Amino acid sequence: MSASSPRRVLLDADTGLDDALALAYLTAVPELELLAVTGVDGCVDGIRAAHNSAMVLQALGHPEVPIGAATGQYDGIATPPPVQAFGPSGMGEVVVGPPDEARSFPDSVELMARILDRDRLPTTLLCTGPLTNAAKLLRDHPGAARWIDRIFVMGGSIAAGGNVTAAAEFNILRDPEAADAVFLADIPTTLYGLDVFVQPVISTDELGTRPDDSPRARLSHLLLRELAALFPGRGAFLGDGGAAVVLMNPELASKTSYPARVELEGTHTRGATVVDRRDSQGGDWPRIDFVTAVDPDGIVSEFLRQINRKEAP
Ligand code: RIB
Ligand code: CA
């Protein structure tokens, strides 16, 4: 691969409002090739996630991107019902549809494996939902998975605790066995967790301005305004969109590698990311790269720059 080749990215998502922001960004960046978007059970089920991705990609003018769908947990352990943080549709009140209910999708894991086997080129897996599909890909398709150069995950936390329980972040809690399997796989893994997740915020002032007259800018504006309405505060947090920006712009974040595992038991702590911050300890725990700090303003301006960039006709 030449130095100028675009970065190859597979996005695995439980497509809701902030995953849709990630999609808007990923389809705008010229230095990136979005190979597929695969649905996973999360804040909506994996079929609905696929339909949401299809509608968002259509609205963004990228209906050609392959889409997969899958439901079910990594090892069949029952988990609590999804937390519908963005309402039953995952998109709040934003209407990008209607979904093409007659459309069927290939299985998410099979689609990822097929692309990796076909191209045999280094590819980054960006996960903005639970890690069910990622773990299944590593377990069921080890040959294909060896082309993954990094798994970049929105999930977990170092010191920020959880958002669904006191200890656990949603994407990890939804399928802790899957997350721990990903940690244990011998593939470089980055966690963009709750320590930084809500820091990149588009201000209320910015949201009050008229968006550029492009489908991408208009859709992003709608998504952001909905996020601001659902989570009132200083404006709209970029959420998974911020993870996508940091993936492509590592200089906007600081990372530290720590030994880490996922808590699989625990009366109050199932789904917690247990991070060993003692120097040179951790025994045989895998080392995970955690995003420890971000440049929130830099992330927001890069996001807006790409969202508002005029695409070549
Ligand atoms: O905990 C935040 C995560 O849960 C985000 O990825 C959001 O989209 C939901 O999946
Ligand atoms: Ca998500």
CATH class identity? Alpha Beta
Helix tally equals 12
Shape: globular
Bound molecules: alpha-D-ribofuranose, calcium ion
Quote the CATH topology: Inosine-uridine Nucleoside N-ribohydrolase, Chain A
Oligomer: single chain
The stretches of 5 or more residues where confidence is low (pLDDT under 50) are none
Strands of the biggest beta sheet: in what spatial order? 3-2-1-4-5-6-11-9-10
How many angstroms does the end-to-end distance come to? 27 Å
The string of secondary-structure elements, in order, is: EHEHEHEHHEHHEHEHHEHEEEH
Structural class: alpha/beta
User: How many whole angstroms does the radius of gyration measure?
Assistant: 18 Å
Tell me the helix content: 25-40%
Q: How many independent structural domains?
A: 1
Task: Tell me about this structure.
By secondary structure, the chain is an alpha/beta fold. It has helices at residues 17-26, 46-60, 108-119, 132-140, 142-145, 170-173, 176-184, 194-197, 204-208, 215-230, 240-248, 296-307; strands at residues 7-13, 32-39, 67-68, 123-127, 148-154, 189-192, 201-203, 235-237, 253-262, 273-275, 287-294. The two termini are 27 Å apart. It has one domain (7-307): Inosine-uridine Nucleoside N-ribohydrolase, Chain A. The protein has a nine-stranded mixed beta sheet, sandwiched between helices. Strands 7-8 form a two-stranded antiparallel sheet. α1 links the parallel β1 and β2 (32-39). 52% of the residues are buried. The radius of gyration is 18 Å and the shape is globular. Alpha-D-ribofuranose is lined by residues 14, 16, 18-19, 42-43, 128-129, 154, 163, 169-171, 239-240.
